[in-house]
Amino acid sequence: MDGRADTLAGLPPASAFAARVAQAGDQRLAQGVAALVAQLARLIAEAQLTRDDMRAILAFLTEVGETCSEQRQEWVLLADTLGLTSAVEAQMAQRPAGATPNTLPGPFYRPDAPMRADGESISLDAKGGPLTLRAEVVDLDGQPVPGAQVEVWQANADGLYENQEPDQQPEYNLRGLYRTDAAGRVTIRTVRPAGYPIPADGPVGRLMARLGIALDRPAHIHVRITAPGFQRLTTHVFDASDPAIDRDPLFAVHPALLATFDPAPKGGFTCAFRFVLARARPGADAQ
Ligand SMILES: [Fe+2]
After folding, report:
1. Domain residue spans in the chain?
2. What pLDDT score does 105 carry?
């Protein structure tokens, strides 16, 4: 044994691990993995983990990996449903008080949605209850942000996105890009979205079911707003009346993102929503 091995012998594995990676070239990676190992060692002690527990955990993680394919990312679903994605989003995109909160974009975003004229509908098949979303984009002082790009995407009245059923919905159905006018306003015509469940047929869905966690997301419209000089905002507008509003399995609901879909005099619904952008931070990216 050399002197180094003598020093490490007998240390708890987590401490020995941290010592072994202390000279690694990538110190961010080394410290991250060592911190993870230390947290897991504490968890093993606190929860009095058994060999059977360990086998069950490894079998679960194996199944999560085996469920992944070109069309499905079960690891992302696991991170989302454990609240990890939302925690990272909150940390990466801290907003000043009064700014609309940032949220995860979710798995159904497409970066190539077509441009729409003010007042044009994104519902290409006209199925569902008509909804007019009157959006206003302002800065923290309440001043309008003209020329902001407002991108929206949503599920239809059955809770399904266009790219989930490409044979039944027209391409780019319920997706579009708009631009705010001189008053920072834009009118988006669409249909009222329905909520939808996250996938229940894989290991993550089965775990959540065993834990008694509901899998249904409350109805929402995804919105991403980009404007020069401002941090990009990626967020949700949630239907406050949805019965699942208090149990979003992805932890994206925030009081500032609740909207009411009011019946319109001529039928359908209207919703007015004000988005408050934060100024870009010097030296930071547009996130
Ligand atoms: Fe969604």
Report:
1. 3-49, 79-276
2. 86
Q: According to the model, what pLDDT value does residue 106 have?
A: 83
Task: Give the tens place of pLDDT for each residue, 158-216.
Answer: 999 998 888 999 999 999 999 999 999 999 999 999 999 998 999 999 999 999 999 99
| Of 206, 210, 190, 187, nearest in space to 198 by CA | 206
Q: Which residues surround ligand 1, an ion (CB under 5 A)?
A: 106
pLDDT less than 50: residues of the chain: 1, 286-287
Q: Which helix (H) or strand (E) holds 40?
A: helix 27-46
Give me ligand 1 centre to Cα 155, in Å.
7
Residue 135, class by beta-carbon neighbours within 10 Å (0-12 exposed, 13-18 middle, 19+ buried)?
A: buried
- Type of residue numbered 136: E
Distance 80 CA to ligand 1 centre (A): 13
Q: In this structure, which topology does domain 79-276 adopt according to CATH?
A: Protocatechuate 3,4-Dioxygenase, subunit A (2.60.130)
Query: Buried (b) or exposed (e) across 254-276, using 16+ Cβ within 10 A?
Result: beebbbebeeeeeebbbbebebb
The whole model's pTM is what? 0.85
| Distance from the alpha carbon of residue 178 to the mean position of ligand 1, in angstroms | 19
